[in-house]
Amino acid sequence: MEQIRVARSFVAADALAELLESEYELAAPVSCQLFSKLLRTQDNDHYLVNTGNGEKFVVRVYQSGKHLERQESDYLWELDWLLFLHNNGLPVSYPLPRKNGSHLGSLLAPEGIRYYALFTLSEGEALTVTNEEQLFICGQQMARIHKASNAFESDHHRQAMNLEYLVDKSVARVKEFWGDSHSADMEILLMSAAEAKDEILALINNEYHTPDSWGPIGGDFHSSSVYFNGSNEPSFFNFDLCGYGWRAYDIATFLLNTELLHHPEDLTEAFFAGYYSERPLSENEHAAISPFMTIRRIWMTGLFTRSDGIVGHTFIAPAQPLKKR
């Protein structure tokens, strides 16, 4: 019987619990429960961790290194940043140390090495997009994260969210995936990508430079990645798409993810009021939000056309024969 390559696997919850019990200072017995995946199989795997003394955590098992072209250093950078934010009083879920003092572990899955980390659990309810107070707090805390991160340093490398990563590689991936079967759609995408990229380059290169417009960002803030407790205090989590990038891109991503612009203006104004209370945007940054929203859509299209086919090729386009390689 021949061995076949596996693109995606799930770690058995009981096996993962045994691993965590041996690697972390957790009260026994430890048990794990996989959070529902549904259509989000492109994401990392997250398990609720229950311990013998009633404490709860969450463990993330990252996808294999081919996912988003990640290396071990990318994960270490993320964990360094979250610890930095936590140590600076920012309300984020942060990693816990293993018995050996490191924050990142690895395991051998059928598809290759997968890394994992144990995090504090953000409890409460997801952001209510129609709640002005919560939107103000979200904007305020995002700005505080941006400001505090200006002082962050790490010895580890992290993939930067520059225009090559966001636009060029995404467009190339979509072109390869669609081939000649979606020429009209491809023409629209190419035109939109070129216009948005030109707008951003013009803003970057004009005389009104914003010193801290670039730096560590969350990369994927949305209503399901910030929970509010009974005292209306937030806790941000799931920073898998973090890295160096433009702060205006972070804002554009939040606006898209929450569909905030489709709600009454008072709600959008509440978010921006919160952000401006800590970090007023420059004219350049404000002008960059719209083209960054276009760029985010292009990046998402490219994400779902990854060649490993984790989400299935019909997720992004009608069924069609895949090109032979």
Topology:
Layout: H1 13-23, E1 31-34, E2 45-50, E3 56-61, H2 72-87, E4 105-109, E5 112-120, E6 125-126, H3 132-148, H4 163-178, H5 183-205, E7 214-217, E8 226-228, E9 234-236, E10 243-246, H6 247-258, H7 265-276, H8 283-303
Antiparallel strand pairs: 1-2, 2-3, 3-5, 4-5, 6-8, 7-10, 8-9
Helix pairs in contact: 3-7, 4-5, 4-8, 5-8, 6-8
Summarize this entry quickly.
By secondary structure, the protein is α+β, with helices and mostly antiparallel strands.
Structural description of this entry:
This protein has 325 residues and is α+β, with helices and mostly antiparallel strands. The protein has two domains: 13-121, Phosphorylase Kinase, domain 1 (2-Layer Sandwich); 132-315, Aminoglycoside 3'-phosphotransferase, Chain: A, domain 2, CATH 3.90.1200. The protein is built from eight helices and ten strands. Strands 1-2-3-5-4 form a five-stranded antiparallel beta sheet, with helices on one face. Strand 4 and strand 5 (112-120) form a beta hairpin. Helix 4 (163-178) packs antiparallel against helix 5. The radius of gyration is 21 Å and the shape is globular. Mean pLDDT is 91; it is low at 318-325.
Based on the model shown, name its key terms:
2 domains, 14% strand, globular, disordered C terminus, alpha+beta, 325 residues, 39% helix, single chain, Aminoglycoside 3'-phosphotransferase, Chain: A, domain 2, Phosphorylase Kinase, domain 1, three-stranded antiparallel beta sheet, five-stranded antiparallel beta sheet, 8 helices
